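Minutes, project check-in
Item: structure for the 338-residue chain
Input as provided by the requester:
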Amino acid sequence: MGIGKKVIFAFIPLLILLLLTEIGLRCVHYQIHSGNKCALKGAYARMCCMIDKIKIKKAVDEYKAERPSDPNHYAHFYNDTQYEEEREKYCAKYETVFHEFVTACKEINTLLFVLYIPSQESSRKVSRAFFERLVRKYTIPYLDVTEPLSIYEPETVYLLPEDTHLSRFSNQVLARLLKDFITPYINHRSGVQYTSRPALLGDLKPNDNSIWTIKEELPYRVITNRQGLRRKEEVSFPRSSELTRVLCIGDSVTFCPYLSNHDCYPQLLEKSIDGVEVINAGNAGYTICDEFSYLMERGKYVEPDIIILQVLDNDLYGFSPHKQKEFCRGGKFCMKKK
């Protein structure tokens, strides 16, 4: 055997030793930085997370592919005179459903409050004036947070530049404002009790605990209870007479996309007032017709003492065929009937 071969064979064990050392050090490093005591369990959890992300991305891609085209651009709908007749029609329909919503709250002796949150400037002038007239007509307590939020930079209020939903900071501001707003009424009790109720009290997938990556740059964890509500705790029955139950109904602003459960204003509000249970029943894309059908089918069975109806500038546009086809949950006033 030549000298060269002897040298090579002499180095082979050393290379194998270095390789094994590298593998061992990597395992130790993984074990130290992993949240699991068992490395195999941690690797399995990471693999499941990757699979979930792939599934979510696939679902999002399929959703985008099937998404109907929008014939009436959002800004044009609120600003162009050619859409004035259509806007009036949607305003009339909104008020019709709102009247039913108010009536339903009175029937279950629940106090109704309306929370207005501003969004795009293009729609704010029309919709803000509409909501102000509506709550005055029905004498509904109304909290408009336009001015309190306007003192901050847009990058602080919204999740800019990635998204236009409210930031964690804005949800904290909302919770403080709502605390002052509802505190005088927290001794109210509806007194309504149901002997039976649906298994689902929310419209979300029950028992979910996963990372949502609708936008890859804004991942967030969504946790729901077995009743389909965005909260860990179950809503219990029969309920305590000493507990004030607040139900927040609204669209994605109430659901709080791109934020964890504990950063959403309903959960922050619950933490800020002793003896008050605040339930997040928000759902993306909902407008008053969806919120009414939810209230009648599931929401009222929560037995709320107070309902906070969150409204948004694009709620009127929610009656457009494009939005009804995309988001409508079905019901008495929806284009898509159940």
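Outcome recorded: The longest strand covers residues 111-117.
No further action items on this chain.
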